[in-house]
Design brief:
alpha/beta, 2 domains, 4-stranded parallel sheet, 15 strands, binds iron/sulfur cluster
Length: 431
């Protein structure tokens, strides 16, 4: 089969954009029997790009509503996907299958809104497995997809190296750290472990709560391929919580040190899953930045199942900076009972700390404990538009305060990552 894979631009990639890793793995699994052609509208361009293809050139279309790099914060709106379906239908004959977190969580609501052929649930790589060794027609394949259960790979070590050549690798950019400067640069997105053992009520952990680890030697094989073929030396580990298994991290760091000492990498983790010795090990293997899910300095008082106290946050930040690693922090605004005093304290801390931060408004997303508690699990709503509207009402109902002035101040701070990257003329900001 020839498969057209389309990623609509839902506007969620304002200052960074990573490779659609799920599609790259799927393309590798499917070759040489099936071929995937990827059109990623997040990189720009318009639907005129389709005019290079004949109406019967492809047998089926995979429409990805969010890829791994945005799966945790998947867009609440499916309007870009809806418009894309209309465009595809006006030009091609193939059946369209919508994949991603929206289909995984609320398949019927997505089906009703997008009017596509199927909304199978789960990880893309698991969903293409029936095709991996079989020559099936599109309809045989769609019939085989069990749309009731959520499919995931129990063992992510069965995945071959991603087929990087199906996307323009060097056009994907995000934050890199070069000689203590944070700037925009070409990076390669890696996911080495999937899942998270914590259960913060506002967080969507995709597909499966069991943490699955990719063997460090396989990860190193991917890194070497990227260096050899594209000359990229900056890597972003998109794992939800990179350091949740210390021996695995130590093994990964030892292999990077031995086999790819020239790379620089950034990862994400929790402030309570790091210590000075582990930071040293990571620094020695090229770790130049760590994103911590701080959310708020008072997060432990907010009953959201993230009990990290201020002293633990500050200890992790200090230890990270002491090792010469850039400390990035995620901030979330809009928790129930979050006070202005709390927010101002966090703001003041950001103003005076040598950290780089990114802030977001809390979203109430299906797939989270928060959604289930504030909407009574209303994921049986008949269209995704209804889900989007309920999510917005739930978000507003949690807001006890008007934070607009705090937000205006956050937006102006020079250590706000958006300000650093949007003005990055490749010289970067010195920290
Ligand atoms: S630790 Fe991070 S990734 Fe894990 S559930 Fe909490 S917010 Fe999500």
């Amino acid at each position: 089969m020839r498969i057209l894979a389309v990623i609509p631009d839902s506007g969620s990639s304002t200052y960074f954009l990573h490779q659609p890793l799920d599609l790259l793995y799927a393309a590798a699994l499917l070759e040489p029997i099936h071929e995937i052609v990827v059109v990623d509208f997040r990189l720009g361009g318009d639907v005129n790009v389709f005019s290079q293809f004949s109406d019967r050139e492809f047998d089926i279309c995979f429409l990805l509503t969010a890829t791994y790099d945005h799966v945790q914060c998947y867009p609440m709106s499916l309007r870009a996907a809806q418009e894309m379906v209309a465009q595809l239908r006006s030009r091609f004959w193939f059946p369209i299958v919508a994949m991603g977190p929206h289909s995984t969580l609320c398949p019927n609501a997505v089906m009703n809104m997008l009017d596509v052929y199927a909304c199978p649930r789960g990880e893309l790589e698991a969903l293409v497995l029936p095709l991996a060794n079989n020559r099936l027609s599109p309809l045989e394949y769609i019939r085989l997809l069990d749309t009731h259960k959520i499919h995931y790979l129990p063992d992510i070590n069965i995945l071959p190296p991603p087929k990087y050549g199906v996307v323009p690798m060097l056009r994907y950019k995000s934050e890199v750290v070069e000689r203590d400067k944070v700037k925009l640069g070409s990076t390669c997105y890696v996911v080495a472990n999937r899942g998270c053992s914590s259960s913060c009520i506002y967080c969507y952990v995709p597909y499966c709560r069991i943490v699955r680890y990719r063997s460090p030697s396989l990860v190193l094989r991917e890194i070497k391929l990227v260096i050899g073929n594209y000359g990229i030396r900056d890597f972003f580990f998109g794992d939800c919580t990179f350091t949740q298994n210390r021996p695995w991290v130590e093994e990964m760091c030892a292999l990077i040190r031995q086999q790819c000492p020239e790379i620089r990498w950034i990862c994400q983790t929790r402030v309570d899953q790091i210590d000075s010795r582990l930071l040293q090990t990571m620094r020695e293997s090229g770790c130049v930045g760590i994103w911590y899910g701080v959310e708020s300095l008072n997060i432990s008082t907010l009953v959201v199942r993230k009990g990290t106290q201020y002293r633990v946050i500050q200890r992790a930040v200090d230890a990270t900076l002491e090792k010469g690693i850039v400390c990035f922090v995620f901030i979330l605004i809009g928790f129930k009972k979050d006070t202005r005093e709390n927010m101002e304290q966090t703001l003041e801390w950001l103003e005076h700390s040598p950290v780089v931060f990114s802030w977001n408004m809390l979203s109430v997303r299906p797939g989270t404990i928060l959604w289930n508690s504030v909407t009574s699990g209303a994921d049986r709503l008949s269209t995704w538009e209804e889900i989007e509207s309920l999510s917005e009402k739930a978000r507003v109902s949690l807001l006890d305060n008007d934070f607009s002035d705090v937000i205006a101040r956050l937006d102006k701070l020079p250590n706000n990552i958006k300000n650093i990257l949007s003005t990055s003329d490749h010289s970067g900001t010195v920290l």
